[in-house]
Amino acid sequence: MKQTKNPVYRKRLFFHRVGMALSVGAMSVGLIALLWILATLLINGFSALNVLIFTGDTPAPGSDGGGLRNAIFGTLMMVGLSTAVSTPIGILAGIYLAEYGEENKVAQVTRFVTDIMLSAPSIVIGLFVYALYVAKVQHFSGYAGSIALSLIAIPVVVRTTDNMLKLVPNSLLEAAYALGAPRWKVSVMVRLRAVKAGVMTGVLLAVARVAGETAPLLFTALNNQFFSADMNQPLANLPVVIYQFAMSPYDNWRELAWGGALIVTFSVLALNILSRTVFAQKAPK
User: Fold this and answer.
1) Engineering a disulfide at 144: which of 72, 169, 220, 253 sits with its beta carbon 3.0 to 4.6 angstroms away?
2) What is the pLDDT of residues 169-208, one digit of tens each?
3) Which long-range contacts (CB under 8 A, 24 or more apart) does 121-127 make?
C-alpha cells in the first residue's frame, strides 16, 4: 500500500504500462499483417495446386493449363549447386575465423567484409555477377545464377560456423592438445565435430535464404519458358517466374504465380523447421 502512494513508483508504473501497451500494440499490428499475408497466400495458393503444376512446363502467353516443372527443376539445380559451392567455403572460412580471428588483421578484415555482405542488398550482388560474368560471356546462364546465390549464402555459413565454434569450451580443446593432436586436427576432428549440428543449421538457413531470391536471378539466370538442364543457358526458376507471372494480365499466369509462391513458402518453412528440430543443439557447457 505504501508503494502505491509513492509518486515515484506510480510514475514508473504508469510508464511501464504505457510501454507494455505500445509493445503489445506493435506486436499485434505485425501479427495481423503476417496472418493477413499468410491467409491470402494459402487461399490463392491452394486453389492453384494440382498435379499439372508439378508435371507441366510454363505455358505460353494467353494459353490455358501449364505448370511450373521447369521452374522448380531450375531452382533445385541452382540452389543445389550454390549449396555445394558455399558450404565448404563457408565452413572453412568459419574455421579460420574461429581459430585465427583474434590473432591477425586478415581474419578481422574477413569478418568485417562478411558482416557487410550479410546486409548487402541481393540486387547489388546480382549486378556484380552480371558485370563480372554475364557481360563477359554475353548470355544469361544457370551458372551465373548459382554464383550469385553462392555469394549470398557464403556469409551466412561463415558467421554461423564462426559463432558455433566459439561455443566449444576451452577445456575440450586443451584436452585434445594435451594428447598431442595438431591444431588443424583439433579444429576439424574435435571443435567442428562438437558443433556439427549447429553448422548444419547454418547451412540450411543459408539454403532457405537463397531459395526465394529474385533480384540477383533477374540479372544472371533470367528465365526460360522451356524445360532445360543446361546450366550454361538461361534457366527457369521459381522466383523469376513468380515475379513475371504475378504482373501479367493473364489469369492463368497469376494463378500459377500464387501456386509457385506457396511452394517456395512451404519449402522455406520446411527448411526452417528442419534446422530447428532435427539439427537442434544446445550450447556446450
Assistant:
1) 220
2) 888 888 888 888 888 888 888 889 889 888 998 899 899 9
3) 121/215, 122/148, 122/152, 122/213, 122/215, 122/216, 123/215, 123/216, 123/219, 125/151, 125/152, 125/216, 126/215, 126/216, 126/217, 126/218, 126/219, 126/220, 127/219
Cell for 143? 551458372
Q: How is residue 155 written as a grid cell?
A: 556469409
- CB hemisphere CA count around 186 (13 angstroms): 18
Separation between Cα atoms, residue 222 and residue 187, nearest integer Å: 41
d(CA 109, CA 246): 42
Look up the pTM and report it: 0.87
List, for residues 116-135, the tens digit of each pLDDT value: 998 889 999 999 999 999 99
